[in-house]
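Figure S7 source data.
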Amino acid sequence: MSIAGRHAIVTGGGSGIGAATAAELARLGARLTLVGRREAPLAQTCAALGGERAYQVADVTSPAAVAAAFAAAVKRAGPVAILVNNAGAAESAPFLKTDLDLLERMMSVNLNAAFLCSQAVLPAMLHARHGTIVNIASTAGVAGYAYVAAYCAAKHALVGMTRALAREVAAKGITVNAVCPGYTDTDLVARAVDNITAKTGRDADDARAELAAVNPMGRLVTPQEVAATVAFLCSPGAASITGQAIVVAGGEIMT
Ligand code: NAP
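Tokens for the predicted NAP complex:
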């Protein structure tokens, strides 16, 4: 089934990779619902999109908020055929300074939110015998990195959930994949640069260059490159691809 006319929900759709994904799916004719906590970026992103689109203000870590937002979205635009679990956050700390609250924050937004949103859309996908779920994980979902144990744990868990659910629904016309970006040019990386400069006193350009150097291409990935991969996974040509963790990181990780 082509993307045109299908209802797609993108969590964290107001900024960065989510906004780029929304733009790409809108360009391909999807009917879009964007979800996030801050209304201003959602409204701004929505206004810039063509086609049929709307947004819901919701914290996707809250079961009640997810239930309400998804019910409203379905009422407006019909059953969800594409879900992009993109909302996420990355906090860093040395392992011995990582407390349980930080671990729980990372699990809540990077794993539990995808779990809640997937449960919200799956019954209708099973009924339709068709659907696509794409989880935005990270290179930190398939490899270890220093100072981000909580984020790594949550993104590895998200990849694990992706694989398990993919197997469970493979015969039901539903694909479930993860996309694993390397450092991508978004607010999230801008915050990481601020954090490095605050903690080390280093120049922001230096900090940014150090993150870009992790990528063998010597640059940050663009949000549009991640969005193009998500759109491919939602396209009919990707119908046999499920349970995969596709790395978009300029060759940083090779499997
Ligand atoms: P971003 O611009 O900060 O996007 C994160 C989005 O998630 C925001 O729109 C934010 O909107 C939303 N969000 C966060 N917590 C939420 C919550 N509780 N409920 C609803 N929405 C929430 O950064 P990004 O880089 O595009 O990140 C998108 C995804 O890519 C994340 O899952 C991130 O882990 C992943 N990723 C990013 C990179 C990178 O280098 N940039 C690399 C690998 C993976 P509100 O604040 O308005 O809620």
